[in-house]
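Pipeline run #58 for the internal structure catalog. This entry was flagged by the ingest filter as a single-chain record with no existing model, so it goes straight to prediction. Upstream metadata was stripped on purpose; only the residue string is passed forward. Reviewer on rotation: M.T. Logging verbosity set to normal.
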Amino acid sequence: MILEKMSWSSEFSVGVEKLDDQHKKMIRTINKLIENPDSSVDSEVVSEVLNELRQYACEHFELEETILEEIGYPDLECHKAEHKAFREKLVAVCSATTVHINDVPSILFNFLNDWLVNHILQDDMKYRSFLIDKNIITSSKQLISHKDLFIAGESLPPSPHSKS
């Protein structure tokens, strides 16, 4: 089965430039699998994708959770739980490569496609709506810098972790 490469579109935008950039990187990572449909479990492509996912999980989740905490996002704990589930699935896929399970490339693709569709396009869009509701971004303003977000966040109630 031949799949078409994915392209970024505005429907993926959460309204925060740095997070969008990280989501774009996720799409590029998925495209590596699409571009190499015959990759084996021990291929360089699978290894690269897994390394990129580990980096994504560290950098993206930390930044996203920090932003959501700063803006007082009410579903933060649920969002953190989803990130934890992603990390656990990633560990399971990495483990599958060590025992040379041949289906790893397709398992990995399905996992990432599911993450894109269910997490980014549904769950992340909930905090975009929250940002709009709080007038931090407007629906017509596509992006805000994560640095500006913290400045905008000064008008929000302080998070429980901020020092008063």
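catalog note: Residues 151-164 have pLDDT under 50 and may be disordered.
catalog note: The CA atoms of residues 89 and 111 lie 8 Å apart.
status: ready for reviewer M.T.
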